């Protein structure tokens, strides 16, 4: 793709060198662990092939519109999330801070730890070290899981060392800036990820029993479409998987040149991400189908998502591979690492951009301090109680924090800045024109659906605590994590800007 030239009036703001570089970075942020271990399982649980209907409805009605909003806002305001919101109105600057704070000092802390597990498993795969009982190996030997979140236990050294390595890579990539760091790295990450995923998928198709698994994945159960929770699951999956609502795409789009096709860029990012999910689903269900056949167990007993899929079911399947088991294992964990790191990089960049925009501290010092804090903050998740902490913080941040952030984003842009103004801005730059429906989606549909999801989630959680954790743990770890990040956001938003907003 061609190099894009700018008519930028702000010589100091970094800029993507090429359009493809920007797209690779945006897709790298969206495609992550969620596409590999979350999507296939959510699809299976919610009607298999039929789930694709609510999924694509959510993508078109909410995912693409919100992606366009973030791309358009970052481009228009030429700033990170806090700057963009402060330019709309100083009263709303805190919304921008809250999103980048809870993603940097919440999601990135444990996301990096999960990538560290993958790093360790990359080495384990080379020897099939998990042995005959991957379940005990993962939970007991590797994680040293304690009895609950209240018992923190020891720090697990192999995880801690890998975590250091993960933050080092993250630091190096972001340290070198937008063009020389993130853009260059993304141009390596994405092709490698595609190559690994295609290899794994094609390989899977040749395994005995794989087709049975894929059939189960894609066989539609249309009766599920009448269940509200299925629609809720589709919308929730779309928001998390696209990395929208975290201020990430706002920061990335702030480095775009003046002339760029916002609507096309945002749509390409969304479609590439969903295509990746669909393909990953084929690979995952193919492998599970193979495993069901090998173990002689019914499919419903082998199917799982989340850590159970990557660190228990996959190792189990890999051990029974007819040939090249170790190579398959190495490719699988490498794919997870690459997908994860390209998402982690985007989180660090979103926060760095925010701090540099407001306080004008030197970028490289900011990246260095943040990487150190990221590593230190992540240590709690490397402990024996880390899995429980991870589960609770993830639940509260990705199901409440993220939804609140998206609601606020839509309301502030839709009603205070005015959706119409942003629509005119992006349409002025794009070939494909957005109709009125986009404003409707931003002002009514997305906030409405998310409010419904928050309320129904809260009702469920109040009836019985999530996953049976104690109330104390949910409140002290989950709710307070959200509250503390909110207080921090209000505090930082109240500090003065180093330069007047329209000068910076
Ligand atoms: N989109 C990523 C995934 O699917 C998750 C993510 C969330 C990444 C927030 C960055 C920031 O795994």
Number of strand elements: 0
**Count of the domains:** 1
What is the count of helical runs?
Answer: 19
Distance between the termini: 31 Å
By CATH, the architecture is named Up-down Bundle
> Helix share of residues?
over 70%
Average pLDDT score? 93
Q: What is the CATH class designation?
A: Mainly Alpha
Q: How much strand?
A: under 5%
Order of helix and strand elements from N to C terminus? HHHHHHHHHHHHHHHHHHH
Essential attributes:
504 residues, mainly alpha, Amino acid/polyamine transporter I, 19 helices, globular, disordered N terminus, binds phenylalanine
Write the layout of secondary structure elements.
Blueprint: H1 19-30, H2 33-45, H3 52-77, H4 81-88, H5 93-127, H6 134-142, H7 157-175, H8 177-205, H9 210-218, H10 228-241, H11 248-253, H12 262-295, H13 299-302, H14 307-319, H15 325-359, H16 363-378, H17 386-429, H18 436-463, H19 471-494
Helix pairs in contact: 1-8, 1-12, 1-15, 2-10, 2-12, 3-4, 3-10, 3-12, 3-17, 3-18, 4-5, 5-7, 5-15, 5-16, 5-17, 5-19, 7-8, 7-15, 7-16, 8-12, 8-15, 9-12, 12-14, 14-15, 15-16, 17-18, 17-19
The structure holds phenylalanine.
Phenylalanine is lined by residues 29-30, 32-35, 103, 107, 240-241, 243, 246, 248, 343, 346-347.
Question: Care to describe what's here?
Answer:
With 504 residues, the protein is mainly α. It has a single domain, classed as Amino acid/polyamine transporter I. It is built from 19 helices and no strands. The two termini are 31 Å apart.
